[in-house]
Amino acid sequence: MKHLDNSLIQKYIDNELAEFEAKEAGAHLENCELCRNEIEQRKCFSEKIKSSLDSLASDEIPIPEFVLKRQHNQKKKTLKIAIISSLSTACAMILILLIIKFSKPKTNCDDFIFDYYTIDDYDANKPFPEQDLAVFDTYHNY
């Protein structure tokens, strides 16, 4: 019988061979020292890997606290938005107050309205400053 190939040796170590394959491999291993040594070396290598993994898994690894930097930036961004919106609202209010103050017609009780009438011989061909005018009434604007 020829030697066991690599996939057959691995299946033998992992107990994944069918029943008839396991019998044939067992019969071969009774007579072949080379294949027995190969299986022993692989089992030894596999045990070393498992023990290394176990030792790595048992060590405590410190895990730092997870902090999102985005949250810190988000607070700054929210603060900037709040300040900008507050300032723009204040500017709009000041602008509205200024418009109201300066667009309001002045009504002062001390203002007088002068009614004037022209003399009967009004000449429409003369410029206004040259017209003869007479003031008859003066009254308060209420």
Q: How would you characterize this protein structure?
A:
- With 142 residues, the chain is mainly α.
- It has a domain at 6-58.
- It is 58% helix and 11% strand.
- The chain has 4 helices and 2 strands, in the order H-H-H-H-E-E.
- The chain has helices at 6-13, 19-31, 33-58, 69-103, and strands at 112-118, 133-140.
- A two-stranded antiparallel sheet has the order 1-2.
- Helix 1 (6-13) crosses helix 3.
- The longest helix is centred in the middle third of the chain and has 35 residues, at 69-103.
- The protein is rod-shaped and about 150 Å long.
- The relative contact order is 0.06.
- The model has no long low-confidence stretch (mean pLDDT 77).
| Average pLDDT figure | 77
Q: If helices are DSSP runs of H or I spanning 4 or more residues, what is the number of helices?
A: 4
Low-confidence runs: none
**Cα distance, first to last residue?**
129 Å
Work out the helicity level. Answer: 55-70%
Strand content: 5-15%
Order of helices and strands: HHHHEE
Largest sheet: 2 strands, antiparallel
Rg over CA atoms, rounded to whole Å, is 54 Å
